[in-house]
Amino acid sequence: MSAEAEAGTDVSQLLGGRLTLRQRVAGHRAGTDAVLLAAAVPAEARGLLIDAGAGAGTAGLAAGLRCPALNILLFDREPHAVALAADNLAANGLAMRGRACEADLLDPKSRRAAGILDASASVVLSNPPYLEQGQGRRSPDEARARAHVLEGEEGLARWLRACAALVAPHGDIFMIHRAERLADLLTALEGRVGAIAVLPVHPRVGEDAIRVLLRARKGSRAPMRLRPPLILHGPDGRFTPEAEALHRGEATIGW
Fold it and tell me: Can you tell me the distance from the alpha carbon of 224 to that of 3, in angstroms, rounded to the nearest whole number?
């Protein structure tokens, strides 16, 4: 393990112990969002999976463990996150079919310099920062703040356009975001993808959705579909059986 990756980190077990994840103690922590994003990828997926803005690589690693025909490319603009992702690939036995590299998703020159080519991925995963610049209170931890806040104007739209550029024709984009940004997600993807499927994620029955999972196919003209909701918690506060199975890596999202 690299000293750069180990400093200020701890190790967690996800997917019922199937995924070993080293991540920063004080930084952005992986959780339900990354688990659901990985579970959105069909088990039969093959080719190259790109986890764009991967952080420690949680979503891409979890999808790679479930989908043996996928090669995995994890990239992030933060060097410490890339070091963690590289070590996590090795710790989970995925180094032979995966790599981690440093690149800025929003900078095409940076992507090309890292060997990340447009129209190269059969699957693109992304969990974009949830806040635009100037929204919310910025974390005093700079790495955590950069993981949560998109910089510059139209940050989310530029992020989605970059993801669409990476996916090959007939490939799929999978994304998770705050439910109130659904209109922005659809606007940014208009004309770039089709067959959009939206799955709302609700904390409990009768409560508003807090997240949306989105799947879109490049080159498709199929209409949008709104899928039945995923309910995370029952009346007792515990995960519903469906949510528990997803968190243990025993189920996938049904599209």
Answer: 47
Specify the pTM.
0.89
Q: Which domains are seen in the chain, by residue range?
A: 3-247 (3.40.50.150)
CA–CA dist 100, 116 (Å, integer)? 11
The percent of residues above 70 in pLDDT, for the chain, comes to 88
Computed over every residue of the chain, the mean pLDDT equals 90
* Confidence tier at 139 by pLDDT (50, 70, 90): very low
> Residue 176 pLDDT > 90, yes or no?
yes
DSSP string for 68-81: TTEEEEEEES-HHH
DSSP string for the chain = --HHHHTTEEEEEEGGGTEEEEEESSS----HHHHHHHHTS-TT--EEEEEET-TT-HHHHHHHHH-TTEEEEEEES-HHHHHHHHHHHHHTT-GGGEEEEE--TT-HHHHHHTT--TT-EEEEEE---SEETTSSPPPSSHHHHHHHEE-STTHHHHHHHHHHHHEEEEEEEEEEEEGGGHHHHHHHHTTT-EEEEEEEEESSTTS---EEEEEEETT--PPPEEPPPEE-B-TTSSBPHHHHHHHTTS-----
Nearest to 35, CA basis, from 129, 127, 150, 162: 127
